[in-house]
């Protein structure tokens, strides 16, 4: 299981949650799953036992062969994890880039990671039946397994699965760097291969050469095959349409459960919701907001600050929302332009808007628990995990009907009592605002709102079911490989 980020070692977004939780669920099904990720600074500093393997890896990178160390560790649930250690590549302040943009040597860093992960197999005497790769950073693995010159490698022709968590990140690099991939140019650098408008695309490499492709919700699986959401990859994806599977992500209820969440000032459950009030009160205090908001709707947002997440819509409707006598708390990190826009808007309403810029997991838990509604006006959303966390915390999602948001949130109908949140369709301030107005209106009827909260808190989005779907897929590709 190769992922560029995994909880509890390194995280920028939902992929880390998935890569932390799915292997545990697979392990419970009896799979011998081994995780591999780069040993970033956060992974090195993570307070988990680690042991350096005596054997060094020798890893090809272009015309050179470099060394790497391997640290062996385990996740909290005991999943065996290997960290590829090479400080000059991974011991940096962030995972993928800094305020200048992406790290200039990301092709080197992740080509190295892919080759190291494959060489690891021999070093630890472990031959997997299937290799499951996640996002562009691992995209070179499927073609490397198919490389004809590679026949002597013990892993050659091992089936692979490539999961797209976000098609907005494609791992595009200049053609001149092709030799760093370690692949034969003649066999792989062409339009049916990993060439993409004259460049190298590592996402395309994964999509074209994996034995099956998955993405993280059924609706996103359909969306990425259209020009509106495919970001130029729709043609490539359509060619593989019979091998594309949309498997909805799950929630790790071990980490996201208000009845035992250690980050909350008070715990609560669907049976006893008292603690939620306390969480709201303390969140309002912590952010220095007007105490009168305790009885008014408090909205929240926990998000990477990226164009994907629709923060421009939020900025546009902010004054109108606040006129409804409500509060808003935002936690986010990422794009500096978006950061400045929100800061500017928030400054105008200091007693109503609380803003925390940065990455802060305990605060994400406190925010999701303390808010009444969670806003996710995404332009696109492959799956989205925070809306599912929100449901469990009795915090009602107001989402745009795209991708996994559409698959997980059903419009609430007060007449029938069915539905678990609020959805809007067109990406316009008006339709977003209309949904919020409607949600605020329903908030006023306590009985209706409580019913809605309970509905969400009882839903089960655990990994049990999706893990079985992955298992079936692993079995089907390994059978195909053996034929
Ligand atoms: P994405 O992967 O696109 O960022 P998801 O909803 O799938 O979106 O997952 C986001 C994950 O990252 C959630 O676990 C959320 O709590 C977390 N997260 C996002 N931004 C922050 C932040 N600034 N601080 C702490 N956690 C964050
Ligand atoms: C991506 C997507 C998000 C998804 C997550 C985990 O970062 O943006 O929607 O939930 O991956 O699959």
Overview of the structural elements:
37% of the residues lie in helices and 19% in strands. The relative contact order is 0.10. By secondary structure, it is an alpha/beta fold. Helix 12 (336-347) links the parallel strand 16 and strand 17 (353-357). The protein has 18 helices and 20 strands. Residues 13-15, 18, 165-166, 216, 249, 381-385, 404 line the site of alpha-D-glucopyranose.
Outline of the structure:
With 483 residues, the chain is α/β, with parallel strands linked by helices. Helix content is 37%, strand content 19%. The chain starts with 13 loop residues before the first helix and ends with a helix.
Key features of this structure:
483 residues; alpha/beta; six-stranded parallel beta sheet; five-stranded mixed beta sheet; 37% helix; binds adenosine-5'-diphosphate; binds alpha-D-glucopyranose
Q: Give the biggest sheet.
A: 6 strands, parallel
What are the bound molecules? adenosine-5'-diphosphate, alpha-D-glucopyranose
β-strand number:
20
Query: Helix content range of the residues, please?
Result: 25-40%
Low-confidence stretches: none
What best-fitting shape do the alpha-carbon axes yield?
Answer: globular
Oligomer: single chain
Mean pLDDT: 96
Number of helices: 18
The CA-CA distance between the termini, in Å, is: 23 Å
Beta-strand content = 15-25%
Radius of gyration: 23 Å
Structural class by secondary-structure content: alpha/beta
In order across it, which strands form the biggest sheet? 17-16-15-18-19-20
What secondary-structure arrangement, pairings included, does this model have?
Blueprint: H1 14-28, E1 34-38, H2 41-45, E2 50-52, E3 57-61, E4 64-74, E5 80-85, H3 87-90, E6 97-98, E7 101-102, H4 106-123, E8 131-134, H5 141-146, E9 160-164, E10 172-173, H6 185-188, E11 195-196, E12 199-201, H7 202-209, E13 212-215, H8 218-223, H9 234-239, E14 244-246, H10 274-286, E15 298-305, H11 311-322, E16 327-334, H12 336-347, E17 353-357, H13 361-370, E18 373-376, H14 386-392, E19 396-400, H15 403-408, E20 422-424, H16 429-443, H17 446-458, H18 464-482
Parallel strand pairs: 1-5, 8-9, 9-13, 13-14, 15-16, 15-18, 16-17, 18-19, 19-20
Antiparallel strand pairs: 2-4, 3-4, 4-5, 6-7, 10-12, 11-12
Helix pairs in contact: 1-18, 10-13, 11-12, 11-16
This protein binds adenosine-5'-diphosphate and alpha-D-glucopyranose.
Alpha-D-glucopyranose is lined by residues 13-15, 18, 165-166, 216, 249, 381-385, 404.
